[in-house]
Task: inverse folding
C-alpha cells in the first residue's frame, strides 16, 4: 500500500460564460439577440490512482486518468503525505496505460507479478483512491480472466481483462490489483455499475493484466516513447444479411473492408476494399467493432494474419505492423 499513489490532473479548458453585468443585460434585453456570452479559461481537476514501479519515481496508471487535451499539471500524492508534481508522461491509448515521473528519495515500490498465471477464485486485493477519499483497500476474488470487450468501454477497447468482485469505484482507476503475496497482477480500469445513473461498485470490476503493462513499459525503455502501430485499414463495416446471402455465407459474422490506405502494410499484403475479414491472428471476428478491437491491440513489428473472403473464396493474408508515418493524411 505505501507504493500506491493518488493522481490529480489539472486540465485547462475553454468555456463560455454568460454576461452577468446588469448594464450588458439591459443593453441586449429585447434586442432579439438573446443572452450574450464571452469566452474564458477554466481549470478542471480530475483524479485517479497509480503506483510506483521503481525507485526512480516511475508511476504507472491508466491513460484515461491522465486524460487528453490541455493538461497543465499532474500531481502525485503518496500515502505518507508527500506531494510531487509529475512530468514526462507517456501514454498508450490502445492499452489505456500511462506513466508519469516524479523525483523523490526513498520511494516504496510495488512489485509486478513475474508470472501471468492467475486462477479464477484466488484472492484479489484492489488498492486505490476511490472518490478521492484517500488510500483504500478492498478484497475479493478473481471472478474471471481473458474477458474481451468488442464494443468500446468509454474511449477504449479492452481485451484479455481480469474480472474481480473486489470493490472498484471511481478514483480506483490506475491503482493495482494485487495477489496475496503483494504482487501486482493487474491495473484497475473500469467497472460495470448496473445503470447509467449508478456510480458505485456492484462487484463487477475489470483490470488490465500485468503482462500488457510489461509490454508497455518495455516499449518505453527500449524506444524512449510509445510507437504508434500502423496497419493502414481505414474503414470497416458490419456485414449485412443481404451481403452474406450474396457471398453464400451462413451468418453475418465478419467485417467488410471499406477502405485501405495506399502503400500501407495491409495494402501491400493484398487486402482491399470489399474483402470480408473472418479472423485476425486466429481470433474470430463477428463484427466491425470486434475487428477494430483486435486491430487496436496490434503492436509495432508484430506479424498479423487475416483470414478473408474475396469473391466467394477464402484466402490468408499476412503483413507486419509498422510504426505510423508522421504527417497529415495517414490513416
Result:
Amino acid at each position: 500500500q505505501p507504493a500506491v499513489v493518488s493522481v490529480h490532473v489539472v486540465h485547462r479548458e475553454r468555456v463560455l460564460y454568460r454576461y452577468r453585468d446588469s448594464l450588458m443585460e439591459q443593453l441586449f434585453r429585447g434586442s432579439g439577440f438573446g443572452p450574450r456570452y464571452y469566452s474564458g479559461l477554466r481549470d478542471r481537476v480530475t483524479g485517479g490512482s497509480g503506483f510506483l514501479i521503481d525507485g526512480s519515481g516511475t508511476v504507472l496508471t491508466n491513460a484515461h486518468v491522465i486524460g487528453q487535451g490541455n493538461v497543465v499539471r499532474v500531481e502525485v500524492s503518496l500515502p505518507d503525505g508527500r506531494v510531487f508534481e509529475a512530468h514526462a508522461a507517456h501514454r498508450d491509448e490502445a492499452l489505456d496505460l500511462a506513466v508519469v515521473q516524479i523525483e523523490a528519495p526513498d520511494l516504496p515500490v510495488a512489485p509486478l507479478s513475474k508470472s501471468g498465471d492467475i486462477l479464477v477464485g484466488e484472492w484479489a486485493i484492489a488498492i486505490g483512491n476511490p472518490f478521492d477519499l484517500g488510500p483504500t483497500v478492498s478484497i475479493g476474488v478473481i471472478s474471471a480472466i481473458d474477458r474481451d470487450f468488442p464494443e468500446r468501454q468509454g474511449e477504449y477497447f479492452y481485451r484479455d481483462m481480469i474480472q474481480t468482485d473486489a470493490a472498484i469505484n471511481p478514483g480506483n482507476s490506475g491503482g493495482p490489483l494485487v495477489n496475496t503475496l503483494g504482487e501486482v497482477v493487474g491495473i484497475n480500469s473500469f467497472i460495470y455499475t448496473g445503470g447509467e445513473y449508478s456510480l458505485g461498485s456492484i462487484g463487477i470490476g475489470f483490470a488490465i493484466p500485468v503482462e500488457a503493462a510489461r509490454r508497455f513499459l518495455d516499449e518505453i525503455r527500449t524506444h524512449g516513447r510509445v510507437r504508434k502501430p500502423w496497419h493502414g485499414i481505414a474503414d470497416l463495416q458490419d456485414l449485412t444479411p443481404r451481403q452474406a446471402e450474396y457471398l453464400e455465407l451462413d451468418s453475418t459474422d465478419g467485417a467488410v473492408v471499406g477502405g485501405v490506405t495506399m502503400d500501407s502494410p495491409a495494402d501491400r499484403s493484398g487486402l482491399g476494399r470489399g474483402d470480408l475479414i473472418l479472423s485476425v491472428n486466429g481470433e474470430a471476428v463477428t463484427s466491425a467493432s470486434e475487428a477494430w478491437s483486435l486491430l487496436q491491440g496490434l503492436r509495432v513489428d508484430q506479424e498479423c494474419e487475416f483470414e478473408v473472403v474475396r469473391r466467394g473464396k477464402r484466402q490468408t493474408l499476412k503483413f507486419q505492423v509498422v510504426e505510423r508515418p508522421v504527417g497529415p493524411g495517414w490513416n
Q: What stands out?
A: The chain has three domains: 4-101, 123-223, 229-323. The chain has a mean pLDDT of 89. DSSP finds six helices and 20 strands in the chain. Residues 210-223 form the longest helix (14 residues).
